[in-house]
Amino acid sequence: MALTVTEKAATHIQKSLTNRGKGIGLRLGVKTSGCSGMAYLIEFADTLDDNDQVFESHGIKIIADPKSLIHIDGTELDYVREGLNEGFKFNNPNVKDQCGCGESFTV
Description:
By secondary structure, the chain is of the alpha/beta class. The protein is built from two helices and nine strands. It has helices at about 5-20, 65-70; strands at about 5, 25-35, 35-45, 55, 60-65, 75-80, 85-90, 95-100, 105. It has a four-stranded mixed β-sheet with strand order 3-2-5-4. It has a three-stranded mixed β-sheet with strand order 1-6-7. A two-stranded antiparallel ribbon has the order 8-9. The radius of gyration is 14 Å and the shape is globular. The protein starts with a strand and ends with a strand.
């Protein structure tokens, strides 16, 4: 099992953690939501829970709970700029379908 970030994403995350002044890494997860079934969760992590899985990529700790990890295993988190928009992009090899707006997915 693995979660990774691109170099661009790692740079953005590190800047954000530095500006925030605290945090041990980034927590990735999923929740039931949207028209396709699941939506990604992303937040700063300040602590670890007993069951958390921790991965390191480009110097960034990526944390996931076991229930989320089965849906996002193998995912690469990228940081992209498209026109005037910029943000994180999940490259998840488990996705079978996603809604038209890209906010939710199924595996």
